[in-house]
Design a protein that fits this description.
Belongs to the isochorismate synthase family. It is an enzyme of class 5 (isomerase). Pfam families: Chorismate_bind. The chain is built from 8 helices and 21 strands. By secondary structure, it is an alpha+beta fold. It has a domain of 224 residues: Anthranilate synthase. Strands 1, 2, 3, 7, 8, 9, 10, 11, 12, 17, 20 and 21 form a 12-stranded antiparallel sheet that branches. It has a 9-stranded antiparallel sheet with strand order 4-6-5-18-19-13-14-16-15. The protein binds ligand ISC. The ligand C=C(O[C@H]1C=CC=C(C(=O)O)[C@@H]1O)C(=O)O binds next to strand 10, strand 14 and strand 21.
């Protein structure tokens, strides 16, 4: 556990204000891990900087962690190896106001970061540039491999080996120049007000992860209200004429209803394991997630009323990875994924989000995301399969999921 007493913080509202871009560039140039995010339906944006050369890998125990940002890979037994960015510096952007909380920690990274911020603030403001062009450089056999894995999965499910598995694929695009990720973040926030939008810089891996995810994994707010969701089933939010559909126009097939019900059942099984009966379940309802629609049920627990302050941590351990990204039974699905996917999921379908920031923790399933390495972006998308899945349709679904980020990058 980290002792926050070592890191006293000063809280001031600054008058010569750095922009999010100045701060991001300073973190990027000086190799300080950083996370920029905006919670669903909230106006303010947050940026934290971790002053340190190595990012700790810690158990995701929400009660023990200081303020920061957690990022977990898909493969993370018991959530013990969760990357954790400490909020050594925390900036909150609300309209034109910047609220700054910077720890007095003294080390090489902190000094380099502060100097870089001063230098970038003194430099003439750079003019916004047009988003760079990009081209699809995915492997030509990606679709064939994906569809073969879907066919194999449905055959196994028909034999009764599994009930559900989520198979993913990648799409690689090459940018003409390195994209401005802060500009892309702002565009994603505007396009998807109900999504959790984030950009995370991991200098050890030389990777920037960008996402606009619709799926809450575990939240505990300042009043001790715990939330999770069951999200599955996918269709376009637009009709054949390109018109945005009403949620009431969404028609769901038996396959999609069952796919979502399995995720809900899995959540209820987790509650049962800890003998928790006092939860509220609402839904399923049709929810809009950017260019897509999903079926969604909300689960809520008042942790104060049930006297269960660690519920967030306990459920995080039980839930991850849910059957929205893995499958059922979980271990069989995990083994199938390991053998049939040709890429490493890395942080895709893990979880990420702020921990103990303003007395709240909000962790989301890391989907609708991409990994940026220099000028190359790898997009990840998965499809929940049941025995009724049709390979070409599932491929098309992953194409639509990639569009969540691509259409904003194209804008
Ligand atoms: C695994 C993904 O989405 C999940 C969440 C919602 C709907 C899903 C589906 O319909 O397959 C997936 O379970 C992804 O976007 O990569």
């Amino acid at each position: 556990m980290l002792n926050m007493e070592l890191y006293p913080t000063s809280s001031v509202t600054v008058y010569t204000q750095p922009t999010a871009l100045d701060l991001w560039r300073a973190a990027y140039e000086t190799g300080c891990p950083a996370a920029l995010w905006r919670l669903p339906n909230r106006p303010e944006k947050h940026l934290i900087i971790h002053f340190g050369d190595e990012l700790p890998q810690l158990p995701a125990d929400l009660e023990d962690l200081p303020a920061g940002f957690a990022v977990s890979p898909f493969h993370n037994p018991d959530n013990e190896r969760t990357l954790f960015l400490r909020a050594d510096a925390h900036y909150i952007f609300t309209g034109d106001e910047v609220d700054e909380h910077v720890s007095e920690i003294e080390n090489k990274q902190a000094d380099a970061f502060r100097q870089a911020v001063d230098r970038l603030m003194a430099a003439p403001a750079s003019q916004p540039t047009a988003a760079p062009l990009f081209t699809d450089v995915s492997k030509p056999d990606e679709q064939r491999r994906f569809e073969a894995a879907v066919a194999e999965a449905t055959a196994r499910m028909k034999q009764g080996e599994m009930r559900k598995v989520v198979i993913s694929r990648t799409k690689t695009v090459q940018f003409s120049t390195e994209p401005d990720v802060v500009q892309l973040f702002d565009k994603l926030c505007e396009a998807y007000p109900t999504a959790f939008v984030s950009v995370v810089w991991l200098p050890e891996r030389r990777q920037v992860w960008i996402s606009a995810t619709p799926e809450r994994l575990v939240s505990v707010d300042a009043n001790g209200i715990f939330k999770t969701v069951s999200l599955a089933g996918t269709q376009s939010a637009y009709d054949a004429d390109g018109r945005l559909k009403q949620t009431s126009e969404a028609a769901w097939t038996q396959k999609e209803i069952e796919e979502q019900a399995l995720v809900g059942r899995y959540i209820i099984e987790c509650f049962k394991k800890i003998r928790l009966r006092e939860y509220i379940e609402e839904g399923p309802k049709t929810a809009i997630a950017g260019n897509l629609m999903h079926l969604k049920s909300d689960f809520t627990v008042d942790t104060k009323a049930v006297n269960f302050p660690q519920l967030g941590t306990v459920m995080l351990r039980l839930l991850h990875p849910t059957s929205a990204v893995c499958g059922m039974p979980r271990e069989t699905a995990k083994a199938f994924i390991r053998h049939h996917e040709t890429h490493d999921r890395e942080l895709y379908s893990g979880f990420l989000g702020p921990v103990n920031i303003q007395s709240e923790s909000h962790l989301f399933v890391h989907i609708r995301c991409l990994k940026l390495e220099g000028q190359t972006a790898t997009l990840y998308a998965g499809a929940g399969l049941t025995e009724d899945s049709i390979p070409e349709r599932e491929w098309h679904e992953t194409e639509m999921k990639c569009q969540t980020l691509l259409r904003v990058m194209n804008d």
